[in-house]
């Protein structure tokens, strides 16, 4: 009889809510033992409750994991090595989204944004690579964004962090391919998860600076996009599907409007694409 020790193992960072929580459930439903990385352990109950409702709670373990903390990252990797001796899939999902106009965003916000979305992902990847490399097997799924491909006014900190994730992932894919480790980037458009309430609604502009009119348009556009965004479960299902594929592609963008926008950027001259983006924003 197969025991849980024989099942494929996945680690998902940022599992307390949104995509991360849903990805844990979808992976467990597909037969993975899932290590749910959680920054604030008081939210672990919600993860286990959701897993119980889905009938997969026996497949979920929770670990304390703030990706900005070296000690948490190292302990989580050591726990996985010790308990399972394997890690088949890492989903680098943890993230925050800070907005603001570049002239106004304070240095500490830039640092915090990069520390979570970029350096946190680097830390986690470095910590698990030895285990994957030794087994010559592994898959690293990077939660990027349409903001990792297209810059938008008011999205400076967030887009910069996701563009960094994209560059890192291109290098990583070439470095790890000889060791049987593949890297996949997922680029969702706007979906209605809690992320927008945490960062973007705090976006403000200093009185006296001429950004107010554009800020109003950006906030209206972002709120509309998030409200109209699809069901976050389609992103979670895609990630779980990628985890199971024999030969996944390198990039997946969703929904269709995101794919079309990314294709338009690649096909059009840069200035023309900027004009189109500005006119879309002007209509918000
Ligand atoms: N929603 C969208 O429209 C969208 C679109 C494209 C890409 N994404 C990306 O999808 C990922 C998940 O976001 P989401 O939309 O599902 O938002 P979410 O519900 O806010 O989830 C973000 C998760 O990351 C965790 N987190 C934040 N800082 C962390 C840290 N330092 N260490 C560990 N975990 C941390 C959060 O934990 P706490 O509960 O403790 O805050 C939460 O569990 C992010 O990388 C985001 O950039 C989202």
UniProtKB/TrEMBL annotation:
Its source organism is: Paenibacillus mangrovi
Q: State what protein this is by name.
A: SDR family oxidoreductase
Q: Domain of life of the organism in this record?
A: Bacteria
Is Oxidoreductase found in the keyword set?
A: yes
Identify the CDD domains for this entry.
17beta-HSD-like_SDR_c (cd05374)
* Alphabetical list of Gene3D superfamilies matching this protein: NAD(P)-binding Rossmann-like Domain
A Gene Ontology biological process term: bile acid metabolic process
Kindly state which keywords UniProt assigns to this record, in alphabetical order: Oxidoreductase
> Which Gene Ontology molecular-function terms are recorded?
oxidoreductase activity
The UniProt similarity line reads: Belongs to the short-chain dehydrogenases/reductases (SDR) family.
